Amino acid sequence: MREAVTVQVGGFANYVGSHFWNFQDELLGLADDPDADPVFKNAALDMDVLYRSGETHQGVATYCPRLVSVGSRVYILHVHGGIICRVSWLFEFIRSGNVTRSVSKPHGRNLFLQSLVEEGQNPSTSNGGSNSQKSVEDKDLIECLENGVNFWTDYSKVHYHPQSLYELYGSWTDFDKFDNYGSAQEVVSDWSQIEEMNERLRFFVEECDHIQGIQFIVDDSGGFSSVAAQFLENIADDYTNTLVLLYCVRDPMTLGPSRRNQRESIMRALHDAVSFSKLSSFCNLMVPIGPPSLSRSCMSPYLYIQDEKPFHASAVCAAAIHSITVPFRLQRTGPSSDLAHSSGNLDIGELVHILSDQGRQNMVTALDVAMPAPSLTDRDAMGNIEMKLHSLTPEISDEDEDPYSVESLVVHGALDRGGQRTSISQVKDSVCSVYEARETKPKFSHLSASLCPLPVPLPFPSIFRGNIGRHGEILSDHAEESQPKGSLDIESIPMAARLRSSSAVLPFIERRSGSLQKHGVARGTIGSLVLRDWGFGREEVEDMGEHLAKLLRPFHPEMDLTSDSD
Amino acid sequence: MSLRVLNPNAEVLNKSAALHMNINAAKGLQDVLKTNLGPKGTIKMLVGGAGDIKLTKDGNTLLKEMQIQNPTAIMIARTAVAQDDTSGDGTTSTVLFIGELMKQSERCIDEGTHPRFLVDGFDVAKRATLEFLEKFKTSVVMGDEPDREILKMIARTTLRTKVGAVCFLAFKLSLLGQLYEGLADQLTDIVVNAVLCIRKPDEPIDLFMVEIMHMRHKFDVDTRLVEGLVLDHGSRHPDMKRRAENCYILTCNVSLEYEKSEINAGFFYSNAEQREKMVAAERRQVDERVKRIIELKNKVCAGNDKNFVVINQKGIDPPSLDLLARAGIIGLRRAKRRNMERLVLACGGEAVDSVDDLTEDCLGWAGLVYEHTLGEEKYTFIENVKNPRSCTILIKGPNDHTIAQIKDAVRDGLRSVKNTVEDEAVVLGAGAFEVAAKKHLIDNVKKTVKGRAQLGVEAFADALLVIPKTLAENSGLDTQDVIVSLQNEHDRGLVVGLNHHSGEPIDPQMEGIFDNYSVKRQIINSGPIIASQLLLVDEVIRAGRNMRKPT
Fold first, then answer.
1. In terms of domains, do A344 and A399 share one?
2. Any alpha helices (H) in B111-239, and if so which ranges?
3. Centroid of chain to Cα A221
4. Which end of chain B offers a freer environment for a tag, N or C, measured as fewer CB atoms within 10 Å?
């Protein structure tokens, strides 16, 4: 068993993380539940990889995620004053001449959290005879979550270790406007906060006997990417041989329609370039996630996602990340032996090695996901699994004919036409035949398979359309329902996810490199002023540009000669 | 109005409106912090969005935690917090002083004085006050053996004002009386000894060499100074000793864990024996390093009852731990980076980056090493070291509030002792300096200034009195009585401060109430600068794109 430590930095990353840990919690619960589908028990993923056991001061045993989560905090004792608010306010302020202090109302617990607390207090009532009443309650809970999720903690049902949650604070930093790389300057320069984050991480790393790597989820749409870059740099210093697998997640809304003025759009472009360059220089494999719109994506026949709700979008991202991490937890076997419930174990090191050290040696990979995965056994429909994988990585090219591409595909909980679970060998065969049939085959492809599907926990948003069955099978003869289905109607979902290192990500990198060249390098432009505001000297900008050029180099082997000569 | 032509959306405040906005903001901030000054100041309760509570009277903490929205107030708060960053104290005083300068100026401006005269007066008064401070300060000769008593007094003045809240929490009201000062005195000893421990002659004091460690355990009176180091982790092997005396300490940054070879190599074997061999070969490098450490241990510990402890910044994996445990060595992995530096200062020896050429000279020494377990948290104490140049303040407390507040108090105490040692001077406290400086300004300086700038000097002099006034007010005394009696004493040529118990004048030197020289100088320096700038503002404009950006 090799441990992995998870780090989440930033608002949307915590949204994703909260869903991710809900899945894990659900898996733990189902493995112990005698009534549950036996597949969860037999296909047991090794949860010790992500979880640690410990005990509290009172000697109570705990089982908590090995996690450091970084978010923001604001103390709410305002000293209000005029000018920042509105002019009318200001004049009133001058007339009355005093300072008002207001303490804002603490956010109340929502229905879901209340029910969790009650359940903890009297566990006997939760599985009593009043089953009918219970489901009514559940419906209320789900509705309450659908309408009112304001924070990632609103739907989290996991017990976190007290060392896990860390709140950043900045006296002069406005976390509501924490939207560009420069806005975190104060936080990053505050030595004690960075040190504290390192300490939290050290607590979890110190107790690992063989750490396989760190999974790092960052919300790179704002100032948190600068915090994360600092954090990653320290990780690279302190744990030299520990691999970092970085997921950059983004709320679809932050990429939304650009109704901005010129300065803002330049800032946006520069932010993307700078944070991409900084983050990629301190990790071993980078997976950008965050399509501009999930509601209009190819997944829409099956999923009903409201883009404006981070609660929805983060659920899809979390499901994809969950699938990627499944191979880290499978049982290790020899290459020849075939286990009944899983195959293709990988650890983070092997994954990084497969994807970034071979072929093009490119460390930026695209993430594709099929949610739910199509049924497999029918020979004709077999092409499906390829066709049904949709990219969650933004700004990549659609054509997928790269002979040098390297992939790692994970299929878990796959079903056949009749809605029966397929065996591992069936999955293998069918995936192989798909690849046989392809015109351009990838240079290398790794397949991990497990019987265990993605469980749908209670606080999962209702994003499934009516054509999805109870176990995630796709119903062909369904009645057209408008009501989306949620965790009450659907127990589990088969998933397929793929990490792909190919030329498809080229536009993503090119665009960032291009915008840094265009806006950042020329003297006296808005862009260079912005970069100076963010605290970057000229040389640093050039270094970043060079780093981006280096990331592009694997795609243009002919460029090697020219760029090496200078 | 001309701006309206340039940008119709601009929001403008002009002339007196702008000035009054600034003055009101300064006064408002002063009002907020006024009640927290001094040992008798009251406490503020900060409530977070999630219902978390923080009780504090430390100006610096308050300003940092409060979400201030008025730009002028932000500017003042930043000045005050910068004051804390450079000198470690005086945040509240800075805010009060700026607020009072603005208040005094407001009176003059309402009577028709142009702000420019006031600013000129401030400038003269500031320079005169700083000169006066040079004369007024009490020199402390540090030499090789610093005067512990003076240091203790300084530390005590700082701490007494801070620790009130701690006792309030820990012992409720009934015990407040005695333990309040009891704890402050205890912390005083700790802080002074800590600074003297890390002090090196002719070098600036690096407070990072004092590790501050906290344990949620027992009571705040169990807080103590550990001459040595406390690490927040323990050994990870069941057979390692939990307590050892007379220990050699090896501080190293060497990876003792098996890392996969870079190339993706396969493992091919046909029987168990072969496999064993290959595993052993893979591990050989790591084992080699462990063996070297064991060799050194056997060399230095042969034939005596000494022990050996390895503290590694990198990881140590279970097989290596096993080897170490079998050789009777205690091994700790993943030590904090900063602790590597501290360990060397505390125990001696040197931090090694490789295990080649290990000699006895690389080793440090500690009389006692033991582990303490609290739930799942482990602490390793390294004590009884020779000639420590680094030490740990171990803060204990029954709950997080108490710990956080003692931590703040210790931090301030450390810095004030450091300031004293570096300034080699102190200033009489309890308001004595302010009253004396006022007298000096009015009697001697004002006459030398020509014209209306005199008003500025006078306003400055009056503003200085805000410190004794507030001290009196917070002690529940009558402000005017106190100020009059203090001024009377000063007129008679005596230097007195305020006894906040009785309201009578006292000699601060006798009572041992001192302030930091550098803190006072900073306040006198920065207060008038910011006040002058605010006074000279005649228009407030919000139109530019940069104005909305968080600064």
1. yes
2. 115-136, 148-171, 176-198
3. 13
4. N
Q: Tell me the three state secondary structure of residue A212.
A: strand
Q: Which two tokens stand for residue A89?
A: 């306010």
Assess whether A1 and A70 both reside in one domain.
Answer: yes
Which residue in A56, A77, A94 is closest to B21 by CB distance?
A94
A60 and chain B: CB distance < 8 Å anywhere?
Answer: no
Catalytic residue among B58, B84, B120, B515: B58
Top-confidence residue, A383 or A506: A506
Closest B-chain CA to A81? B70
What is the chain A residue with the closest CA to B269? A334
Q: Is the domain of A345 the same as that of A486? A: yes
Instruction: Kindly report the CATH number assigned to the domain that includes residue B218.
Output: 3.30.260.10
Q: Does B8 touch chain A (CB under 8 A)?
A: no
Give the CATH number of the domain where residue A25 resides: 3.40.50.1440
Contact state of A56 with B29 under an 8 Å Cβ cutoff: no
Q: Which of B56, B91, B157, B251 is catalytic?
A: B91
**Average pLDDT estimate for B243-267:** 73
Within this chain, do residues A430 and A515 fall inside the same structural domain, yes or no?
Answer: no
Same domain, yes or no: B320 and B268: yes
On whether both A487 and A515 belong to a single domain, the answer is no
Arithmetic mean of pLDDT over chain A: 75
| Residue A216, pLDDT score | 92
d(C-alpha B34, C-alpha B27), whole Å: 10
Nearest partner of B477 among B455, B494, B502, judged by Cα: B502
Q: Which domain holds residue B46?
A: 11-139+428-541
Mean pLDDT of A70-95: 36
Of B430, B426, B425, the residue nearest B490 (C-alpha)? B430
Cβ-Cβ contacts under 8 Å, B314 against chain A: 240
Q: Is B103 on the interface with A (CB under 8 A)?
A: no
Say what percent of chain B tops pLDDT 90: 0
User: In this structure, are A198 and A331 located in the same domain?
Assistant: no
Given a cut of 60, whether residue A284 has pLDDT beyond it is yes
Instruction: Dig out the tokens for A153 from the structure.
Output: 């903690």
Query: To probe the interface with A, which of B24, B36, B76, B263 has the most A CB atoms within 10 Å?
Result: B24
Using the beta-carbon criterion (under 8 Å), do A81 and B259 form an inter-chain contact?
no
Q: What is the domain extent for residue A528?
A: 508-555
Give a yes or no: residue B110 inside a domain: yes
In which residue are the tokens 């040079």 written? B134
pLDDT category, B148, cuts 50, 70, 90? low
Domain shared by A532 and A452, yes or no: no
Cα A494 off chain centre by: 19
Look at residue A515 and tell me if it is in a domain. yes
In a domain, A441, yes or no: yes
DSSP secondary structure string for all residues of A47-74: GGGTEEEEE-TT--EEEEE-EEEEEE--
Query: Is any Cβ of chain B less than 8 angstroms from the Cβ of A192?
Result: no
B273 in a structural domain: yes
Which range scores top for mean pLDDT: A129-143, A170-184, B486-500, B516-530? B516-530
Q: Is-catalytic flag, B356? A: no
- Kindly report the pTM of this predicted structure: 0.81
Q: Where are the alpha helices (DSSP H) in A357-489?
A: 384-388, 424-437
Q: Sign of the CA dihedral B158, B161, B165, B166?
A: positive
- Contact between residue A422 and residue A368 where contact means Cβ atoms under 8 Å apart: no
B421 at interface of A, judged by CB pairs closer than 8 A: no
**Are B124 and B150 in the same domain?**
no
Domain co-membership, B134 together with B16:
yes
- This model of the complex carries an ipTM of 0.76
Q: Which of residues 285-324 of B touch A (CB under 8 A)?
A: 314-315, 317-318
A32 and chain B in contact, CB less than 8 A: no
User: Got the DSSP string for B404-438?
Assistant: HHHHHHHHHHHHHHHHHHHH-EEEETTTHHHHHHH
Q: Cβ neighbours of residue B549 under 8 Å, at least 6 residues apart?
A: none
